[in-house]
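Researcher: Please translate sequence to structure tokens.
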Amino acid sequence: MNQARGTDRIPAPLLALTAMVSVQLGAAIAKTHFDDVGAVGAATLRLVIGAVVLALVVRPRIGHWTRAQWLGAVGLGLALGGMNVFIYLAFATIPIGVAVTIEFLGPLALSLVHTRRWRDALWAALALAGVVLLGVGPSAVTEVGGVVWAVLAAACWAGYIVMNRHVGAAIPGVDGLVVSMMVAMLVSLPFGLPSAIDGVVREPVLLLVFGAVAVLSSVLPYALEMLALRRMPTRVFGVLQSLGPAIAALAGLVVLSEGLSVLETVALVCVTAASVGVTLSARRRRR
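Model: Translation complete:
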């Protein structure tokens, strides 16, 4: 709780930006070990270690929770588990920058659902143009499955934003996040546990690697996002993450040497520009 109060002095946008850099760096590091544990096994290790670390550090008090609080935490956990598993499956076949650009359409669509301004419709058209370009790009043409996984991750991300806002408001501290992480862990276990165990038995050092991945991709960013969402509207939070695809592409380039084609780069710019445009429009409406 004292740590949560200390973060109140940090601007909420900075919390969100730090979370984005952390999660994409962690994802890039995790992908370097997909051959060892598989994509879903990597997601499972990340979620298991992240959930255990959070539970030990926070020690959530859940005895007094209401039914509504439990439902909120479980709903957030389902969205969180789906988002992690689906995006890792996408990472396995398409570049991280492309996968995150597609995934980012989830929060962008969420922000556009509530708008009634014709200018925002233009930003939506720009984002749609980015989708079309991704659809004809080399990654989409050769790896349709990866694109489908990224689209499913986008839907889960939109649900995660909505539920995160709800849980953050309904449950004090980060207790709700801890329970949600446990639920997300349970979602991934049936699919990723066998490959995860097999990889760790062969290379025990992977526990240390995915411990770092869990902190970078789960513990730190989700806690920061929940704290940020308490001080900004859901719609604004979604579009403030407009740098997400670019950060993911940079992480993929630096860590994995994944370059993007010209069409994929233009698509990334289109989606990012649409996000910035909607953000500025939302600020004008508040004024």
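Researcher: Any highlights?
Model: DSSP finds 15 helices and no strands in the chain.
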